[in-house]
Design brief:
heterodimer; A: 403 residues; alpha/beta; Nucleotidyltransferase, domain 5; 2 domains; seven-stranded mixed sheet; 15 helices; 20% strand; globular; B: 808 residues; alpha+beta; 4 domains; 27 helices; 39% helix; elongated; coenzyme a biosynthesis (chain A); EC 2.7.1.33 (chain A); ATP binding (chain A)
C-alpha cells in the first residue's frame, strides 16, 4: 500500500494532481473512468484565460473488464496507481480522518454492493455507492451536454452525428442496455424516472449465445454475428406464406415472423447450425425487441428521442441498425433511435461526476466543448472506439481539459 | 330465484327449502310421468307464453309456435329447405336434418395452418345416443321442422370438434381428414354428398400462412381447394364468437388461481387480442369485423420451441413445456440479487428475485450447455418469452387505452406458469390497471374464424345458451393427468377401465394413444388405430366438444338473463368442493346399484356400472386437484358431469325403476289427497297446497334420509308428516304476497292469473302430490292454463330452464 503515499499534494484548494477513479460494476462488465493530470498542464494558456483557480487539465480514461475477471480489474487499479487520487481526496473530504480505511472511491452498479468487501480486502478502500439510475442519467446528461458529437443516428449503415441543442435536450428516453435493460425517462438535470426495462438484454445475448455457440467471449459472439445469416434460423413471414408477403398488415416476406422459429420445423440439431447464423438471429431478436419496447415506452410518454447506451451495443453497426429499424418501423418514422459514443460508460461517468458535482461538471462542460477534435474522433464513421478487445484496458477515449 | 322477475307466481317454486336435498333431485332426468301435454316441450312453451302474452290464443295441445326468440337474420343466405326431412331415425335427439336440395357448399371443416400447428375445427351432426323415448316423434312434429314459417331456417344441431396437428406432420392431418371424410362434409352426412365425392369442386375454408403454402398439397391429396381467409379476420371472428357464444370462455390466471370472467356482450369492445402462435400478433378489436393489427413480436411460441429444441433436444413443444415445470430458472437467469449481492434494488422497485437478465447467469459460469439442466433452461426461456409478450401487450393496450387483453394462440396451452407469467407482467407494468385474460379455446381462434366464414351455417347468430360443452367422460383421469385413452367405443372403454381397476394406481404411465399427430383435444376424435407413441399430456387442453343445440332458448322471464348464474353453489371454494366431493363419492356405490338395477341387473350392466364408478371417481379426483379443468365448476356442472358419465356408459336413467314405483304409489293416493284439500277453507287450502309443494319436494330418492323415511311408512303418511313440518316462516317466504294475490285483501277481489308456469324438476310425489294439486287449484280459480314446466337437468341449469328436456 505504500504506493499510495507517492502523491504530491499541492494544497487542498488546488488539487492539481487529482487522479480520481469511479467504477461501475455491472452484472457482466466493470467499467472504469479515471482522470489523469495532463503533463502539459502548467503551460496551458486556457488555465489563466478562463481564470479558474482550481482547474486541472487532464484526460479522462475509460477502461472495462469482465465482471468475472474482477481480479484483473483490481490489479489494474493498483498497477496504474489509480488510487493516488483517493488518498488526496480523502484529505479534502475528511481532513480530520486521513487514514486508509476512510478512503473510498465512487462506485455504482449492483457489484458496488456485491464486491464491496473484496475491494476493502484487496485494495483497502471502500466503495461509496452511488445509485445506478442517478449515475446513468448524470453520465448521459454530461455526455450529451459536454461532448460534441456524442450522439448519432444509425440507419441503413449510415452513421450521422447529431448536434444536440442543450436547451432542447429534455425530455428524452435513456435506454441502458447492460446485462438487462433499463429505460429511464429523463426530464431534466437529476429529474428522471425509471419507467421500464426488460430482462432480455446483453446478458441474454451473451448467455444464450454462449450456450448455443460455445463462444468464449461476448466480442467473439458479436464477431460471429457479422458473418451469419439469420434466415437459416428464423421463421420469416415468407416461410409461412410460401414466399409471399402478408401485405395486408404490412409484413414483407423477409420480416421475421418468429425468431428461431425455423429450428422447429426441420430436424437439425444444434450442431447442424452455423454458430454465425445462430448468433446473428439472437442479435436481431434481442436488438429488435429492445427497440420495440423502447419505442413503446417513448410513445407512452410522448418522447421523440431515444438514446441507447450500455455495453451491449459496442458500436456494433448491425445491432444499431436493428434497433434503429425497430424504432423506425414501429414509430412509422416518428421516433428516432440515437446512440452514444461513450455508450458503455454512462454509469461510471455518472459516478465520477458525483465526486463533486457542483463545481466540477460545469467547468468540464465549458471546457470540453471547446475541444471537439480532441474529445471526439471527428466524423469518421468507421471509427469504433470500443471495438477493441474487451480486456484491452487503457482504452482512452476522450480527453477533457479542465481549466 | 332472486334473479327472476318479481312475480309471486314464479316465486312459488323459488321456495328453495329443497336446496339441501337438491343434489339428486337435480339429477332426475325424467319423470316417468305419462301425462301428455302437461310436461311439455320447453321451447314451445316459451314461445307460447310470449305469444299469449301478446294476446295470442293458447291451445292445450302444443302446436308449432310461430315466433322464436332467436331471430334469424333474413339477410343471410339461407339453406335450401325444400324437401327437407329428418334423416334416419326419428327417435334420435336432435336428428340430422336432411336437406336434399342444399348445395354442397356447407362444408363443415375449417383449417388454420400455422407455422407450427395445424388447427382443425369441424362440425358433425353425428348422434351417438339413440334414445327410446316414445314421444319423440310427436315432439318433432310439433317442432314443425317441415313447417317453413316457424323460422327462416333451422340451424343444424350438432357438434363442433377441435383437433390439432403439428404442421411438420401435415400428412397425419390429411389422413385424419380423409379418414373422417371431413372434406366431403363428413361421413355422417352419407347420402347427400355422395354424388359430389372427389369431383374436385369441394372447398375448405382455411387460414394461416399454410393455407397458401399447402394449397397444392390439399388439392393433390384430397382433391379439395383451400379457400383462403385472411388470418387476422379469422382470429378476430373466432375470438368474438368465443367471447359471445360461450359462457365462461375467458378467465384470469394469477398466482395459480384461475377465475372465470363473465363477459358482458355489450361491454366487450374494445379489447386487445394477443395471438401467440409461432410469432405474436396484437390486434385492437373495436367490434365485429372492426379491428387493426397494431403490433406484434417475433419472439413467440416459435422462439420458445425453436430455441428450446436447440438447447434441450426436446422432441416436442409439449415435452419442452413439461420440462419447464420442474425447472428452476435461478441457475440460468441473472437476478437482481445476483448483481446486488442478494439485496433488492428497492429504489426502483426491483426485488432480489427479479430477473435482471434472462440467461445472464450463464455468462459467468464456466459450464457448457450440457452442464445445465434442460428443465432450468426451459423454464428460463418460458419466463423470458411469456414475460416479454406480457410487457409488449400491456404497452400496446396502454397506448390505445384498452383495459382488457385477451391472450390466445397455441403457445399458452393452458399452461399455468405461462399464464401466470403473462398475467404478472401485465399486472406489474400496468400497476394492476390492465387485466390479462385467457381463452379456453385459445388455440382455435383462427380455425374457428375460418369456420365462421362459411356463409350458411348460421352459427354467428348463436347465443351463449345454445352451445353446451361436453367432455368425454369415458377416459379416466387421475391426479390432473390423463391416464386413459380417449376411447369412443363403449366396450373398449369398459375393458380399459377393468384393466385400470385391476392394476389400480399402477397405471401411471401414459397409455398408448393415437398416432402422435393429434393430441386428442376435447372430442378425442382420433383415429382408432393405436400407434406405439407414448405421450404425456400435461399440456392437454381441456376443451370439450361443443354441442350445438339450436333449440335451446333462454327463459325469457329472467330478470337479467346475461348475468343469470344457474349454479347456486360455486365450487371454486375449496371447502365447498371438498364437501360435495365427499357427498358424491359416498353416494357413488348406491348410485351404481341403482343404475345397474335400472338396467335389470345384467352382467353387462354390472360391468358398465363398475367402469362408470371408476371413471367418475377418477374425474372427481382430477377436479379436486384442478377444479377448473373442465371450465368453471359449479355444483350443477359437477352433477351434469356425473350424468354425462352415466350416459357414456349407457345408463339412460339410473332412477327409472324408483321413479316408476313412486309415481304409482303417488297416483294411488292422489284422490284421497284431493278430497282432503277440497274440504279445507280457501285460506287453509292455499297454505296447505304450498306446504304440500314443499313437502313433496323432499321426496328425493337419492338422499338416504328419504329412503329411510320411505321405509317407515306409506307415501301419503310421509307426505302429511313432511307437510306438517313445513312451519313458516320458510327460508324464502313470499306466501303472504302470494296469498294476497290469490285471495285479495279486504274487499278487493283479485283477478285470476291468466297463465301460470310451474317449474318441476322431479317425478313421483314431487309432481303428483305437490304440483298437480296446485295446478288444479290454479285452474279452478280461473287461470286458463297452468303449465307444469319440466326442468330437466339434462343440460346445464340455465338451459334446463329453457328447454329441450330429453323426454318430452
Amino acid at each position: 500500500m505504500d504506493h499510495l503515499r507517492e502523491i504530491e499534494t499541492d494544497g487542498i484548494s488546488n488539487p492539481r494532481e487529482i487522479s480520481r477513479l469511479a467504477i461501475d460494476i455491472g452484472g457482466s462488465l466493470i467499467k472504469l473512468v479515471y482522470f489523469s493530470r495532463d503533463s502539459s498542464d502548467h503551460e496551458d494558456p486556457l488555465n489563466d484565460s478562463v481564470g479558474v483557480s482550481n482547474g486541472v487539465n487532464g484526460r479522462l480514461h475509460f477502461a472495462k473488464f469482465e465482471t468475472t475477471k474482477i481480479n484483473d480489474c483490481l490489479k489494474f487499479i493498483s498497477a496504474n496507481k489509480l488510487l493516488l487520487g483517493v488518498k488526496v481526496n480523502s484529505g479534502f473530504q475528511h481532513q480530520e480522518n486521513p487514514t486508509n480505511d476512510r478512503s473510498f472511491i465512487k462506485a455504482t452498479g449492483g457489484g458496488a454492493y456485491k464486491f464491496s468487501d473484496l475491494f476493502k480486502e484487496k485494495l483497502g478502500i471502500s466503495l461509496e455507492k452511488e445509485d445506478e439510475m442517478d449515475c446513468l442519467v448524470t453520465g448521459a446528461d454530461f455526455l450529451l451536454k459536454a461532448v460534441n458529437h456524442e450522439a448519432f443516428t444509425y440507419l441503413n449503415g449510415q452513421k450521422e452525428f447529431v448536434q444536440i441543442d442543450h436547451n432542447d435536450l429534455y425530455p428524452y428516453l435513456l435506454v441502458n442496455i447492460g446485462s438487462g435493460v433499463s429505460m429511464v425517462k429523463v426530464d431534466g438535470d437529476g429529474k428522471f424516472e425509471r419507467v421500464s426495462g426488460t430482462s432480455v438484454g446483453g446478458g441474454t445475448f451473451w448467455g444464450l449465445g454462449k450456450l448455443l455457440t460455445k463462444c468464449q467471449s461476448f466480442d467473439e459472439l458479436l464477431e460471429l454475428s457479422h458473418r451469419g445469416n439469420n434466415r437459416v434460423v428464423d421463421m420469416l413471414v415468407g416461410d409461412i406464406y410460401g414466399g409471399m408477403d402478408y401485405s395486408k398488415i404490412g409484413l414483407s416476406s423477409t420480416a421475421i415472423a418468429s425468431s428461431f422459429g425455423r429450428a422447429i420445423s426441420n430436424n437439425n440439431e444444434l450442431d447442424d447450425y452455423k454458430p454465425e447464423d445462430v448468433s446473428r438471429s439472437l442479435l436481431r431478436m434481442i436488438s429488435n425487441n429492445i427497440g420495440q419496447i423502447s419505442y413503446l415506452n417513448a410513445l407512452q410518454f410522448g418522447l421523440k428521442r431515444i438514446f441507447f447506451g450500455g455495453f451491449f451495443i459496442r458500436g456494433q453497426s448491425y445491432t444499431m441498425d436493428t434497433i434503429s429499424v425497430a424504432v423506425h418501423f414501429w414509430s412509422k418514422g416518428e421516433a428516432k433511435a440515437m446512440f452514444l459514443r461513450h455508450e458503455g460508460f454512462l454509469g461510471a461517468l455518472g459516478a465520477f461526476m458525483s465526486y463533486d458535482r457542483h463545481s466540477l461538471d460545469d467547468l468540464m462542460i465549458n471546457q470540453s466543448v471547446q475541444i471537439p477534435v480532441d474529445a471526439s474522433c471527428g466524423t469518421d464513421t468507421n471509427y469504433n472506439p470500443l471495438e477493441r478487445d474487451l480486456n484491452e484496458t487503457e482504452s482512452m477515449q476522450c480527453s477533457v481539459y479542465q481549466a | 330465484m332472486a334473479s327472476l322477475k318479481e312475480d309471486p307466481i314464479l316465486e312459488i317454486d323459488g321456495i328453495k327449502i329443497k336446496e339441501e336435498f337438491e343434489i339428486d333431485k337435480l339429477r332426475e332426468d325424467c319423470p316417468a310421468l305419462e301425462t301428455e301435454g302437461t310436461v311439455i316441450k320447453g321451447e314451445s312453451s316459451i314461445d307460447k307464453v310470449r305469444e299469449e302474452g301478446s294476446g295470442g290464443q293458447g291451445e292445450r295441445d302444443m302446436v308449432p309456435p310461430t315466433s322464436n326468440s332467436i331471430h334469424r337474420s333474413g339477410s343471410r343466405p339461407q339453406l335450401d329447405l325444400s324437401k327437407a326431412a329428418i334423416e334416419g331415425n326419428f327417435e334420435e335427439r336432435d336428428p340430422t336434418i336432411l336437406l336434399p336440395n342444399q348445395s354442397d357448399d356447407i362444408s363443415h371443416l375449417a383449417l388454420d395452418i400455422g407455422g407450427s400447428l395445424i388447427k382443425l375445427v369441424y362440425f358433425s351432426r353425428h348422434q351417438d345416443r339413440p334414445t327410446n323415448d316414445k314421444r319423440k316423434k310427436t315432439v318433432k312434429e310439433r317442432l314443425g321442422i317441415s313447417n317453413g314459417n316457424r323460422r327462416s331456417y333451422p340451424i343444424l344441431g350438432g357438434r363442433l370438434h377441435f383437433v390439432k396437428f403439428e404442421t411438420s406432420k401435415i400428412n397425419e392431418c390429411l389422413d385424419f381428414i380423409s379418414s373422417k371424410q371431413l372434406h366431403r362434409g363428413g361421413v355422417d352426412s352419407h347420402s347427400w354428398h355422395s354424388d359430389i365425392s372427389s369431383n374436385g369442386n369441394a372447398v375448405i375454408k382455411a387460414t394461416g400462412g399454410g393455407a397458401y403454402k399447402y394449397a397444392d398439397l390439399f388439392k393433390e391429396r384430397l382433391g379439395v381447394s383451400l379457400d383462403k381467409e385472411d388470418e387476422m379476420d379469422c382470429l378476430v371472428a373466432g375470438a368474438n364468437f368465443l367471447l359471445k357464444a360461450i359462457r365462461h370462455e375467458a378467465f384470469t390466471h394469477m398466482e395459480g388461481q384461475k377465475e372465470f370472467v363473465q363477459i358482458d356482450q355489450n361491454d366487450l369492445f374494445p379489447y386487445l387480442l394477443v395471438n401467440i402462435g409461432s410469432g405474436v400478433s396484437m390486434i385492437k378489436v373495436d367490434g365485429d369485423g372492426k379491428f387493426e393489427r397494431v403490433s406484434g413480436t417475433n419472439v413467440g411460441g416459435g422462439t420458445y420451441w425453436g430455441l428450446g429444441r436447440l438447447l434441450t433436444k426436446c422432441k416436442s413443444f409439449d415435452e419442452l413445456l413439461e420440462l419447464s415445470q420442474k425447472g428452476d430458472n435461478r441457475t440460468i437467469d441473472m437476478l437482481v440479487g445476483d448483481i446486488y449481492g442478494g439485496m433488492d434494488y428497492n429504489k426502483i422497485g426491483l426485488s432480489a428475485s427479479t430477473i435482471a437478465s434472462s440467461f445472464g447467469k450463464t455468462i459467468s459460469e464456466k459450464k457448457e450447455l450440457t452442464g445445465y439442466r434442460p428443465e432450468d433452461i426451459s423454464l428460463s426461456l418460458l419466463r423470458m418469452i411469456s414475460y416479454n409478450i406480457g410487457q409488449i401487450s400491456y404497452l400496446n393496450a396502454l397506448r390505445f387505452g384498452l383495459k382488457r387483453i385477451f391472450f390466445g394462440g397455441f403457445f399458452i396451452r393452458g399452461h399455468a406458469y405461462t399464464m401466470d407469467t403473462i398475467s404478472f407482467a401485465v399486472q406489474f407494468w400496468s400497476k394492476g390497471e390492465a387485466q390479462a385474460m385467457f381463452l379456453r379455446h385459445e388455440g382455435f381462434l383462427g380455425a374457428l374464424g375460418a369456420f365462421m366464414s362459411y356463409e350458411k351455417h348460421g352459427l354467428d347468430d348463436l347465443m351463449v345458451h345454445q352451445l353446451v360443452e361436453r367432455f368425454p367422460m369415458g377416459a379416466p383421469y387421475t391426479g390432473g393427468k390423463i391416464h386413459g385413452p380417449p376411447l369412443g367405443d363403449l366396450n373398449e372403454k369398459i375393458s380399459w377401465m377393468e384393466k385400470f381397476v385391476q392394476k389400480g394406481t399402477e397405471i401411471t404411465a401414459p397409455v398408448p394413444m393415437a398416432p402422435s399427430g393429434t393430441t386428442g383435444l376435447g372430442g378425442f376424435e382420433v383415429p382408432s388405430s393405436k400407434g406405439g407413441t407414448l405421450r404425456s399430456d400435461a399440456s392437454a387442453l381441456n376443451v370439450g366438444v361443443l354441442h350445438l343445440v339450436p333449440t335451446l332458448e333462454v327463459f325469457p322471464q329472467l330478470a337479467d338473463p346475461k348475468m343469470y348464474e344457474p349454479n347456486t353453489i360455486d365450487l371454486a371454494n375449496h371447502s365447498e368442493l371438498e364437501y360435495w366431493f365427499t357427498v358424491l363419492s359416498e353416494h357413488l356405490p348406491d348410485l351404481v346399484d341403482k343404475a345397474v338395477a335400472s338396467e335389470g341387473g345384467t352382467d353387462d350392466s354390472k360391468r358398465r356400472g363398475d367402469a362408470f364408478a371408476r371413471a367418475f371417481s377418477a374425474h372427481l379426483a382430477r377436479l379436486m386437484e384442478e377444479p377448473a379443468a373442465y371450465g368453471k365448476l359449479g355444483l350443477a356442472n359437477l352433477l351434469e358431469l356425473r350424468e354425462e358419465c352415466l350416459r357414456e356408459f349407457q345408463f339412460v336413467d339410473a332412477y327409472r325403476s324408483i321413479k316408476q314405483r313412486e309415481n304409482e304409489a303417488s297416483l294411488a293416493v292422489l284422490s284421497d289427497l284431493l278430497v282432503e284439500l277440497d274440504s279445507m277453507t280457501e285460506e287453509t287450502r292455499l297454505l296447505t297446497l304450498i306446504e304440500g309443494v314443499l313437502a313433496a319436494n323432499i321426496f328425493d330418492w337419492g338422499s338416504r334420509a328419504c329412503v329411510e323415511l320411505y321405509h317407515k311408512g306409506t307415501i301419503i303418511e310421509i307426505y302429511r308428516m313432511s307437510r306438517n313440518k313445513m312451519q313458516r316462516p320458510w327460508r324464502v317466504d313470499d306466501f303472504d304476497a302470494f296469498k294476497e294475490r290469490m285471495l285479495g285483501s279486504g274487499d278487493k277481489k283479485p283477478r285470476p292469473h291468466k297463465r301460470a308456469l310451474l317449474f318441476v324438476d322431479n317425478s313421483g310425489a314431487d309432481v303428483i302430490l305437490g304440483m298437480l294439486p296446485l295446478a288444479r287449484e290454479l285452474l279452478r280459480r280461473g287461470t286458463e292454463e297452468s303449465l307444469p314446466f319440466h326442468v330437466a337437468s339434462e343440460r346445464r341449469i340455465l338451459n334446463n330452464l329453457c328447454t329441450n328436456p330429453p323426454f318430452c
